[in-house]
Amino acid sequence: MARYIFITGGVVSSLGKGLASAALGALLQARGFSVRLRKLDPYLNVDPGTMSPFEHGEVFVTDDGAETDLDLGHYERFTGVSARKTDSVSSGRIYSTVLEKERRGDYLGKTIQVIPHVTNEIKDFLAVGEDEVDFMLCEIGGTVGDIEGLPFFEAIRQFSHDKPRGQCIFMHLTLLPYLAASGELKTKPTQHSVKELQSIGIAPDILVCRSEHPIPEKEREKIALFCNVRKESVVAAYDLKSIYEAPLAYHAQGLDQAVLDAFDISPAPRPDLSVWHDVYDRIHNPEGEVKVAIVGKYTQLEDAYKSIAEALTHGGMANRVRVKIEWVDAEVFDTSDDVASHLAGFHAILVPGGFGERGTEGKIKAAQYAREHKVPYLGICLGMQMAVIEAARNVAGLSTAGSEEFDHESKGKKRFEPVVYHLKEWVQGNHKVERKVGDDKGGTMRLGAYDATLKDGSKVAEVYGTTKIDERHRHRYEVDIAYREQLEKVGMTFSGMSPDGKLPEIVEWSDHPWFIGVQFHPELKSKPFQPHPLFKGFVKAAKDMSRLV
Ligand code: GLN
Fold this sequence. Notes:
The chain is of the alpha/beta class. The protein contains 19 helices and 25 strands. The protein folds into 2 domains: about 5-280, 3-Layer(aba) Sandwich (Rossmann fold); about 285-549, Rossmann fold (3-Layer(aba) Sandwich).
C-alpha cells in the first residue's frame, strides 16, 4: 500500500508547491521508489478545460484525455510518470459527482452533507490506485484557510487517520519574508500558517520555507520549536535560476532525507542523481543561443504556454544551446502588413495552439513569413491549421480558404473554402466518438492520445526516427482531407495521418529546411531528460539557422 505525502501551502499563494511536489517525486524515484502525483484543486470549475488561459495558465491534457491543471505538467516533466484522469480533481468535480449520486438515489434518502459525503468522495479519489506505487504525493491547491479548500483539508486529515500509523505525512510550504529595514527573516507568518493547519487537526511533519535569503540556524531552530517540527525537517527553498535545479537543490537541503525519516525508512536507499546532474550541466553550460518567436494570443501570461516554453528549453538542452523566447502578440500584424519588422532576426518561429478568431490573421502571416524566408517553423494545433490556410490561400490559389471556427457564411463569406472544418465524429481505438449539436462546452473536443502514421521518408519520420507515434490532442477542428491533393500538388506534404487515413495529423513543406505543422500538442510529452523529438529537431534547425544569419 502506498505511503501518502500531502503537500499544502500557507502564507501566500504561488510559492511553488507544484514544483516542490514534482522535485520530491523525482528525488524519491532517484532512491528507487515508484511514485504517482495528484492534484486536488479547490475551485468550483468541474475541470480547467473551460477556464481562460489568461486566468489559469495552460490546460494540461493527459493521455487518457483529461483536461487538468498545469501542475500535472510539472509532475510529468520531473518524474516521467504519465498522469491519468484520476490524478486531478476539483471541488466542482467532487460536488458534481456527489450531486449526481444524490439524484440517482444512491444515498438512500440520507441528508447530504460536506462531512461525510463530500469528504468521502475526496477520500475515494485519494485511494484510487493506492496499491500501485510506493509513494502517492497529493498536492492541495490554494492556501490553508481558503473557504473552498476546507473539505480537502478535512478529507486528508480523516484519510491519515483511517490509515495505519506512519502511512501518511504532511508537508507544508510557507514563506519567510525578509524585512530589509531590520535585515531579518520573519518567521511569524509561518507560525500563524502552521497554527491554522493545526486548528483543523493537521500537524505538519515537514516545513518547506521559501526564502530569498539564507535561513540562519537560529531562525530554523525557532521555526522548529514554535511549529512543533524537527529542526532537520525545516527545509529551505531558495530561488533558483532554473526550475530543473530543484531536485538537486531540495536534495542539498535534505528534503528527501527528511521525508524518509518522517516515514522511518532506514537505512535510506542512496540516491542516483546522475540524470539531474546532466540536466544541470546542460542548462548551465550552453554553447550558444537561439532566438525563437512564439506568435500567440495569450502572450501576457507566460503560463498560458507553459509546456511549450519548457519543451523549447528541453530542445535547447538537447542541442546545448540556450533558447531565448520572445513573445510576439499575433494581433499586432492582424492589422499591419509589416511582418518582417516583427519577425526578422529570429532563428525560428513557433505558432502555438489557441481558440477563437483573434490573432489568426497574424498567425497566418507568420506562417507565410516563415515559408517564404525559409525560417524554421513549428505550428502546433491552431498553428498547423493556420499554416494550411496560408498554403491554401497563397500557394494553392484558394483565396477564400478559412476555418469553420471563425469563418461563417453568415459573416458574408459566401464562397469560403473550409480547409479547416468542424469534425462531428471520429474513431478512437475501436470506438466511434460523436459530437452532437448543443453539447456542453466542456469535454466536446478530440482529447487525449491518438495514434498517427508517418509517411516513410518524410522530414517528420526522420525527426521521430519512426513511422508510428501517439500524441495528445485537444481541439474541435480538423484540416479537411478533401484539400490534400490540391495542397500536395503545390508542395505541402500530408506526412502524418490518423491510422484510418481520414484525419491529417502532420503537414510539412518539402522544399523548406524545417517547416512542420502538427494537429496535436507534442509539448505535453517533453521532459528535460527526454526532450521531445520535434522540439529537439526544431531547436536544431534554429541552431543551424543561427549559423547562417
Ligand atoms: N481552435 C482550434 C480547434 O479547436 C485549435 C485548438 C488548439 O490549438 N488546441 O481545432
